[in-house]
C-alpha cells in the first residue's frame, strides 16, 4: 500500500480552525432570525438552514472519525471496536453526507428557478407555503433512502493500528465512486440547466425586474457560487472513479488523501457565500456579532409577491 501524504489533512485543519467558528455563528444567526422574522421561515431559508446543519454535521463526524483518528487513546478505541460499524461508518459517512448535500443544492437551485421564472404558478405557491416540517423531512429522507445502497456495507477494516487506513473491497470502492460520480454529475447537470434558464430569463427581462425580484436574483447568485464547489467535487470523483477502475494503488490513495481538501471546500464555501452575497443577512449577522438587537423592520420580505410586484411593465 502506498504511503498516504499528510499535508492535505493539515490544510483541512487550517480550513477548519478558520472557517468552522464562522459557519457555526452563521448557522446560529439563521436559527435566531427564524424567531424574529417571517422572511427567515420561508422555504428558501428552511432549505438553506438544513444545508448548513448538514455541512456542520459532516464536518463534526468527519473530524471525529477520520481527521483525528490517530490521537492516542482514540485510535486504540476505534481499532478495538472497528467491527461495530466504526470502520464502516468512517467510509460510508463520506458518501451519505455527500448525497445529502447534493440533494440540498438541487433543492436550492430548483427553488430559485421556480420563484424567479414561475412566481405565480401553482407549483410556486405550493412550494412557497410548504410547512417547515415537510421541507425538513423531505430534505433528509430522500438522500437517506438513496444512501441505503452504501450504508448497508459493513465489510471494512483498518489496515493496522499504526496507520488506521480503511481497507475495502475493490468492487465496493468502484461501485461507490461510480455512484457518487453519477449523483454529483446529475446534481451539476440539474443545477446548470436551472441556472442556464435563469440566465436566459434575466437577460431577456433585466430592464423590467422589480426590486423584490432583484433580491431573489441576489439569493440565486449566492446559491450559484455554492454550486461551484460541487463542480470541484465532480472533478474529484471523476478522477477517483477512473483510478479505482484502472489500479488499486498509487493515485487512488493520493486521491483518497486529498479528500479532506475537497470536503473542506464543499463544506466551508457556504458561510462565505451567505455573508458576502446576502446583504439582508449580512446586516443582521453584524448586529449579532456586536450583540445588537436584531431589528425586524430592517428585514425586507421578498417572497409571496402579488402579480403587480413581480415585474415592472
Q: What does this entry show, briefly?
A:
This protein is mainly α.
Features of the shown structure:
single chain, 313 residues, mainly alpha, Rhopdopsin 7-helix transmembrane proteins, two-stranded antiparallel sheet, 12 helices, 2 strands, globular, disordered C terminus
* CATH topology category name: Rhopdopsin 7-helix transmembrane proteins
Poorly predicted regions are: 297-313
Helix content: over 70%
Structural class: mainly alpha
Give the strand order of the largest sheet, numbering strands 1, 2, ... along the chain: 1-2
Q: Give me the count of strands.
A: 2
Q: How would a crystallographer describe the biggest sheet? A: 2 strands, antiparallel
Protein architecture, described:
This protein is an all-alpha fold. The protein has a single domain, classed as Up-down Bundle (Rhopdopsin 7-helix transmembrane proteins), CATH 1.20.1070. It has helices spanning 7-34, 43-67, 74-80, 82-117, 122-128, 132-151, 170-205, 211-246, 251-257, 259-277, 279-289, 307-310; strands spanning 157-158, 166-167. Strand 1 and strand 2 form a beta hairpin. Helix 2 (43-67) packs antiparallel against helix 10 and helix 4 packs across helix 6. It is globular, with a radius of gyration of 21 Å.
Walk me through the topology.
Blueprint: H1 7-34, H2 43-67, H3 74-80, H4 82-117, H5 122-128, H6 132-151, E1 157-158, E2 166-167, H7 170-205, H8 211-246, H9 251-257, H10 259-277, H11 279-289, H12 307-310
Antiparallel strand pairs: 1-2
Helix pairs in contact: 1-2, 1-10, 1-11, 2-4, 2-6, 2-10, 3-4, 4-6, 4-7, 4-8, 7-8, 8-9, 8-10, 10-11
Amino acid at each position: 500500500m502506498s504511503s498516504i501524504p499528510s499535508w492535505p489533512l493539515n490544510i483541512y485543519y487550517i480550513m477548519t480552525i478558520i472557517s468552522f467558528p464562522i459557519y457555526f455563528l452563521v448557522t446560529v444567526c439563521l436559527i435566531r432570525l427564524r424567531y424574529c422574522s417571517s422572511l427567515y421561515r420561508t422555504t428558501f431559508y428552511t432549505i438553506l438552514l438544513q444545508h448548513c446543519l448538514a455541512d456542520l454535521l459532516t464536518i463534526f463526524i468527519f473530524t471525529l472519525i477520520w481527521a483525528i483518528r490517530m490521537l492516542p487513546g482514540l485510535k486504540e478505541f476505534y481499532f478495538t471496536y472497528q467491527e461495530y460499524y466504526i470502520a464502516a461508518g468512517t467510509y460510508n459517512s463520506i458518501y451519505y453526507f455527500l448525497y445529502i448535500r447534493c440533494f440540498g443544492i438541487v433543492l436550492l437551485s430548483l427553488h430559485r428557478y421556480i420563484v424567479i421564472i414561475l412566481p405565480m404558478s401553482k407549483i410556486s405557491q405550493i412550494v412557497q407555503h410548504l410547512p417547515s416540517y415537510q421541507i425538513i423531512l423531505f430534505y433528509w429522507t430522500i438522500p437517506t433512502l438513496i444512501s441505503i445502497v452504501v450504508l448497508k456495507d459493513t465489510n471494512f477494516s483498518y489496515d493496522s493500528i499504526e496507520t488506521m487506513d480503511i481497507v475495502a473491497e475493490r468492487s465496493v470502492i468502484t461501485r461507490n465512486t461510480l455512484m457518487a460520480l453519477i449523483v454529483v454529475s446529475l446534481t451539476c447537470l440539474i443545477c446548470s440547466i436551472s441556472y442556464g434558464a435563469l440566465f436566459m430569463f434575466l437577460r431577456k427581462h433585466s430592464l423590467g425586474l422589480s426590486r423584490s425580484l432583484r433580491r431573489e436574483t441576489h439569493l440565486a447568485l449566492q446559491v450559484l457560487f455554492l454550486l461551484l464547489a460541487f463542480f470541484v467535487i465532480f472533478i474529484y470523483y471523476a478522477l477517483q472513479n477512473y483510478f479505482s477502475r484502472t489500479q488499486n494503488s498509487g493515485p487512488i490513495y493520493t486521491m483518497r488523501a486529498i479528500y479532506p481538501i475537497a470536503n473542506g471546500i464543499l463544506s466551508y464555501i457556504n458561510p462565505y457565500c451567505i455573508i458576502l452575497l446576502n446583504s439582508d443577512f449580512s446586516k443582521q449577522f453584524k448586529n449579532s456579532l456586536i450583540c445588537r438587537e436584531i431589528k425586524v423592520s430592517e428585514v425586507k420580505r421578498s417572497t409571496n409577491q402579488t402579480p403587480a410586484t413581480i415585474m415592472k411593465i
